[in-house]
Each structure stands twice: as C-alpha cells, then as structure tokens.
UniProtKB/TrEMBL annotation:
Keyword line: Melatonin biosynthesis, Methyltransferase, S-adenosyl-L-methionine, Transferase
Family, similarity comment: Belongs to the class I-like SAM-binding methyltransferase superfamily. Cation-independent O-methyltransferase family.
Protein name: acetylserotonin O-methyltransferase
InterPro entries: COMT-like, COMT_C, COMT_dimerisation, SAM-dependent_MTases_sf, WH-like_DNA-bd_sf, WH_DNA-bd_sf
Organism, as annotated: Lolium multiflorum (Italian ryegrass)
EC number: 2.1.1.4
Domain O-methyltransferase C-terminal: 179-354
Length: 372
C-alpha cells in the first residue's frame, strides 16, 4: 500500500478529543435549535403562560396539566416540554419555599413566568403571542428549506423563497389567514410604541401638526401616537382592502391608496417595519414619494423610520446581534432585507434626502429620522 501523502489540509482538519466533543455538541445544538421555536409555539397554543398567570404566577406540573386540560397520559411529556422551555428561559423552575419535615417528600417545584413569558399572557397589555403565530409558521419554515435550490438553480433564483415553496408571493399567503399576520403586526406595534413613545417621544413631539403612517394597517401605531400627542392629526395610508376592515377609530383617519403611487401630504411620514419588506429600488421609490409629501427641513418636514439597522450600535449584546441576523434571513424568505447603515444611507441619498439621524433603542430596532 502506498504511504499516505501529507497534505496541509489534513492539518486543518485535525482536532483534539476535546475539540471533537465540543464541536459535536455545538453542531447538534445548532441542528436542534428549531425545537426551541416549536416548543415556544406549543406553549403559546396551549396558553401555558395564561395558565401560570391564573395560578397567581406559579404552578406545579399537575396544576398546569389541570389548567390546560392535557390528556392524563401526557403528564410526563408535559414535563419534558417544560424542561425545554425552562432551559431556554421562557419559564423558570423554582423549588417550593416550605421546608420538608423529616421523612417527608421534597417541596414541590413551581413553574413561574419570566420576562419572555410575561409577553405571552393574553390579558396583558403587552401580549405578543400573535407574533409567535406569525413568525413560527409553516410558510416561513418551508420557504427557508428551499434555500439550497434557490441559491444554486437558475429557475428559482428569480423568485422569492416563498414563491418557490408555495407558488405565490408572501402577501398572497396572508389572504385568508384569519387576520394572523395583521394581528401579529398590531401586537408588535402596541408593545413597541409603548416603549418608543416613553423613551423617545421627542421624535414625534417635534412634529408640528400632522403625521401619515404609511402601510399602517388598522392603525395600532398611529393610534398610539395620536393618544400620546393629541395635537397631531394622524392618518393611516394602506390598501383599500386593508382599510375596509379597519375598526372604527375617532383618533385616526384612514385613506385607501398605494404607497408606490401616492403618499398624502403631512408634516411627517412614518414607516414602521415597512421598508424591510422591499428591495432597494422599491424603497427609493417609496422614499421619493415621502419626500414629495413633506415640507422642507426648516419647516419641520421629516420621515420617521422604525426599522432595524443591522450592527447598530456596535456595542449591542450578542443576543441582539444574533436576533438581527436571524431576522434578516427570515426576511429573505419574502424577498425582504434587514439593512446595515451603509445600505440605508444609499436609499436616502438616491431618494434625494440630505441628512439622517439614527437613534438606537434598547431592542433590535432603531428610529431613523430622515430630513429633506
């Protein structure tokens, strides 16, 4: 047998025992990350956060089983599901405070809400459970499974991932979804605006008298702004079929229209989580129409964008960086994109704007004020 010829590439692949085990651990952890998402979806569908809340914020396994009415044979499986959810920080597991007597069993364990699961309690003013329904969704998962084909084959390359997987674009998938997508967006707006108006309300307070929320759906964002700043006349622009289903609202005026054709005149235009849905050239077109709708900068005109600036600020925590990267690939499924500052800057420049200001929030999004 011929001796094995040394190859420098062999050195690159050589690993110690510890490296092999660590690499295997990390690899399997990545492979099974989807279990965390699906466990979260199961907890939301079973209304486990509500069950714990009804028990005063703490529930044993058997109390939880009674509350959510699981099948009696599934108690041990519920414990396994809760182990994933406590390990991942959705719930916490604490020992009962009662000291056991001699020979008595150990105090029972209780599941409690965390900062994550408190956002999933239905009666809470900041319930984000509709967003779990929106994001942990078979349409998105099936689309991302098509990435290898989409990247390498000619025919799919001209379509979005969702078009490859579903045969229709993203917006078609939201038709007939029972309001799941619009419900998720409304829930996000209610929570996001609570924080943004409290921490960064000056962005809106500076607007003279009128604001138009482009793509504002049923007005959750515009209503929050109008409530916080009663001097502002707030208008929502959205497609006719969306506006037709908007609930009665005495704080907001609804206008049916296409943001690619017309933006109603106002002192400021608001775009919350809109531009990340669209390609560069589409964003430039929308921003040009926004520029036509507002007065000059010295008269107070500006566009307010609430969206992600990937990598901004540079001091952000690892969880925030990872969430931004996840969101970007998630948006790739519908041909959207989460942008870095340089990409935003190009859009603003091509649309004819002269300046912008980025204000990071404590979350994953920023507020961008763009000036004509």
């Amino acid at each position: 047998m011929a001796p094995h010829k040394h190859n420098e590439q062999d050195d690159e692949l050589t690993m110690s025992t510890n490296e092999l085990l660590q690499g295997q651990l990390e690899l399997y952890h990545h492979c099974l990350a989807f279990v965390k998402s699906l466990a979260l979806k199961a907890a939301t569908d079973l209304r486990i956060p509500d069950a714990i809340s009804r028990r005063g914020g703490a529930a044993t396994l058997s109390e939880l089983a009674d509350e959510i009415k699981i099948h009696p044979t599934k108690l041990s499986n519920l414990r396994r599901l809760m182990r994933v959810l406590t390990t991942s920080g959705v719930f916490s597991l604490v020992q009962g405070k009662d000291e056991p007597c001699d020979g008595a069993a150990a105090p029972p364990e209780y599941y409690e809400l965390t900062v994550v699961s408190r956002l999933l309690v239905e009666r809470s003013p900041h319930d984000l459970s509709p967003m779990v329904d929106t994001m942990v969704d078979p349409v998105s998962w099936n689309a991302l499974l098509k990435m290898p084909e989409w990247f390498t084959e000619e025919r799919p390359s001209g379509l979005s991932l969702i078009e490859v997987a579903q045969g229709c674009d993203f917006w078609d998938t939201t038709v007939g979804d029972g309001g799941k997508f619009s419900g998720g967006m409304a829930a996000d707006s209610r929570v996001a605006m609570q924080v943004l108006l409290k921490e960064h309300g000056g962005v809106f307070k500076e607007v003279k008298s009128s604001l138009v929320d482009v793509g504002g759906s049923h007005g959750a964002t515009a209503t929050a702004v109008a409530k916080a700043f009663p001097h502002l006349k707030c208008t929502v622009l959205d497609l006719a079929d969306v506006v037709a289903l908007a609930p009665t609202n005495d704080r907001v005026t609804f206008v049916a229209g296409d943001m690619f054709k017309y933006v109603p005149p106002a002192d400021a235009v608001l775009l919350k989580w809109i531009l990340h849905d669209w390609k560069h050239e589409d964003c430039v077109k929308i921003m040009r129409l926004c520029k036509e709708a507002i007065p000059e900068r010295d008269a107070g005109g500006k566009v307010i964008i609430i969206d992600m600036v990937v990598g901004y600020p540079v001091t952000q925590q690892h969880d925030s960086k990872e969430a931004q990267a996840f969101f970007d690939v998630y948006m790739m499924g519908m041909d959207g994109i989460e942008r870095e500052e340089s990409e935003w800057s190009m859009i603003f420049s091509e649309a004819g704007f002269s300046d912008y200001k980025i204000t990071p929030t404590n979350g994953i999004r920023s507020i961008i004020e763009v000036f004509p």
